[in-house]
Amino acid sequence: MSTDVAARPTTTTPLRVKRKRRWGRDTVWSVVAWVIGIGFFFPVLWMVLTAFKKEGDAYTDPPTIFFTPTLEQFRSVLSSGIGTTLMNSAFATAVSTLLVLLLGVPAAFALSLRPVRGTKDALFFFISTKMLPVVAVIIPLYVIVGDIGMLDNIWTLVILYTAMNLPIAVWMMRSFFLEVPSELLEAASMDGASLWTAVREVILPLVSPGIAATALICVIFSWNEFFFAVNLTAVQAQTIPVFLVGFITGEGLYWARLSAAAVLTALPVVLAGWVAQNKLVRGLSFGAIK
Amino acid sequence: MSGAHTQVAARPTPESKPAAILKSKRDHISRAEGWRRRGPLLPALIFMIVITQIPFLVTLYYSTQSWNLVRPGSRKFNGLNNYVDVFQDSQFREVALNTVIMIVGTVIISVVLGLLLALLLDRQFFGRGIVRTLLITPFLVTPVAAALIWKTTMFDPVFGLINFVLKPFGVGQVDWISKYPLPAVMADLVWQWTPFMMLLILAGLQSMPRDIIEAARVDGAGSFKLFRELTLPHLRRFIELGAVLGAVYLVNTFDAVYMMTSGGPGVASSNLPYYIYQRAFLGFDIGQAAAMGVVTVVATIIISTLALRLIFKSFTGNEEAA
């Protein structure tokens, strides 16, 4: 401590100069970072701005930056039957996410804290289903779903979205369970509590942030899903991305209204992603990267 | 695994009983225990087998059928003829090449951009959290909506922002999408996937041991040398993982092609999912489309194997470290 203080006066001048130079460089870099950040975000920003324009302001050369914002486009989109599709998307997303957690959290537990024999094989199987290109199963799915009369039924999407997200959830939740010290479970069980009580009272609260992050990632993927939705639904079970595509075919020349529809489509998942951003990498890399 | 062993050992073993009975009892207990452990896993496992494996087996079966939905009653066993047709289909070859270009190009460009952005974000600066949030947003935007943005407000020949920005450089009213359909789709994909790479690489940068860097800096290593000899080798695992995972996700690209170009002109910007979709749902040729699906799966097995190996490796690495 005392040597520190003694040493300080001798180095003061060069350090301050260095700091100043460093500060200048840092400013440059932070400006660069901000410019690039805004640049990357710009298409989204522009979409949001366009959604608040009148159609006349959406088509101009040069592009209009200053305009009087209007809610006209949102009103017209909301009155064009988007309500049902929003409900469909919300239903498919919520129910499939719930199912994923109900199936995935116990499975992840069985593959981590009290591992079953063949854990590695099971893990391998789960992740390999994610590596199977979706086109390889769409044709029989279409035929089978048609045969059992489930085309254009929202439950078809619920089931498929559950299968789509379950591997991610198992792997991701496993990585959270592995962070729980295994002695904790033993200690809790030894107190005479049943395994289920121990899991419920001790383990689940510990991994609940992981469960929340897993849920958010499932929400993002199911809300955004398009391939199954466009092939297996028509009118009744139409989800929001399919609606947006139909909207383009119908209203392709009305950019402002289209942008409003696109904003409504993307908004829920962008918000979910912002909330989950610290855990996003973990989900996308199947828990391989923390 | 080892848990089962300690469980059994923890039970008081009655010494008076013969060893054989003891052994069978022990086996019995561990079997029951085994099933108790397996219980929570089974619903998920069975669900996934039913939903993913059965349709794939059916695809294999369909791929041996001559079956066009437009001609009912024409369905018959066709052997491997569908596969022969697929490989003789010059459009299929073009589409397969497009798919490779789309995946490899998008992965390389977004890894490079993602690396640069991650290096930028690894510094301390004012509002870093906000800039990071801005940068990851493209990844979150619904792919259909993203493709819509690029098709209209960005690439439109007259009112698009790209041409507006390029106008001072003497670029006229270029119709990017019809002139360069594949690169246009890739621009949208790169925009969406760069944040993914950035996040992975940033996680890598932030897991770097700071003291080693400081030590090297004290030893007089320059920034570039530091980057090349310390940072880049450390990031290798993250970059590899990002590349293979990106490829695995990008194999399924459909929305962008569907929205921006419909695969055209001709098949100039079609990829395998879009082409198979066209064959099955617009051409109703179930047999051919199924065979193409199988070919796609076989082709992706190589990249999937790589991805799996990397993921497993990083996991065992983590567990050993923990």
Q: What is the element string of chain A, with H for helices and E for strands?
A: HHHHHHHHHHHHH
The span between the termini of chain A is: 37 Å
What's the multimeric state?
Answer: heterodimer
Percent strand of chain B equals under 5%
C-alpha Rg of chain B (nearest Å)? 27 Å
Structural class of chain A: mainly alpha
Helix percentage of chain A: over 70%
Determine the mean pLDDT of chain B: 82
Query: If you average the pLDDT of chain A, what whole number results?
Result: 84
Number of helices of chain A: 13
Largest sheet of chain A: none
Question: Strand arrangement, largest sheet of chain B?
Answer: 1-2
Number of helices of chain B: 15
Most extensive protein-chain contact, per-chain counts: A-B, 99 and 107 residues
Strand-and-helix sequence of chain B, N→C? HHHEEHHHHHHHHHHHH
Q: Estimate the strand proportion of chain A.
A: under 5%
Q: Helix share of residues of chain B?
A: over 70%
Commentary on this structure:
The complex is a heterodimer of chains A (290) and B (322). Chain A has 290 residues and is an all-alpha fold. Chain A contains 13 helices and no strands. In chain A, helix 3 (72-78) crosses helix 12 (255-275). The longest helix of chain A has 50 residues, at 2-51. Chain A is globular and about 70 Å long. Chain A starts with a helix and ends in a 6-residue tail after the last helix. Chain B is an all-alpha fold. Chain B is 75% helix and 1% strand. In chain B, strands 1-2 form a two-stranded antiparallel sheet. In chain B, helix 14 (272-282) runs antiparallel to helix 15 (286-321). Chain B starts with a helix and ends with a helix. Residues 1-26 of chain B have low confidence and may be disordered. Classes of the chains: A mainly alpha (290), B mainly alpha (322). At the A-B interface, helix 1, helix 4, helix 5, helix 6 and helix 7 of A face helix 2, helix 3, helix 5, helix 6 and helix 7 of B.
